[in-house]
Q: What sequence folds into this?
């Protein structure tokens, strides 16, 4: 399936991005990667912040190729799009989906469900994704990067 098919299904809509938008989103990623290391915050919240960094990095790729999610299942389709934007393998995408579920449980259902190890893994995944997105932008959409 192609992203254009997702538009037909109502999961995405076409979007024209700009250098400013990409810069702003990358700034959010950097902010969240810094904030998730704040030791005074609970592990659950730090995990959520790191997850948000990864989600925003995925959003950068989706916007760069000319799409944005509709409001329905925003996180799901943003994560799924990584296989089509960055050509990431299904293992990476499944792992991020698993972290999405953990984030949802810790944000809406019960506290104390995030371990130090899970937090470390989420931070590493977010850092890795940010780096992949930056390299991909440089190779495929340099016009969207600031000079």
A:
């Amino acid at each position: 399936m192609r992203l254009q098919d997702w538009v037909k299904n109502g999961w995405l809509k076409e979007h024209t991005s700009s250098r400013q938008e990409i810069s702003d989103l990358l700034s959010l990623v950097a902010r969240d990667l810094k904030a998730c290391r704040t030791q005074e915050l609970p592990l659950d919240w730090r995990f959520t912040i790191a997850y948000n960094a990864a989600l925003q990095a995925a959003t950068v790729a989706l916007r760069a190729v000319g799409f944005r999610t509709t409001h329905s299942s925003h996180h799901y389709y943003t994560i799924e799009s990584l296989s089509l934007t960055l050509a990431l393998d299904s293992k990476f995408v499944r792992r991020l989906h698993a972290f999405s579920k953990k984030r949802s449980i810790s944000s809406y259902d019960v506290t104390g469900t995030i371990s130090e190890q899970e937090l470390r893994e989420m931070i590493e995944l977010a850092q890795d994704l940010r780096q992949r997105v930056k390299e991909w932008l440089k190779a495929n959409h340099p016009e969207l990067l600031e000079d």
Summary: The mean pLDDT is 95.
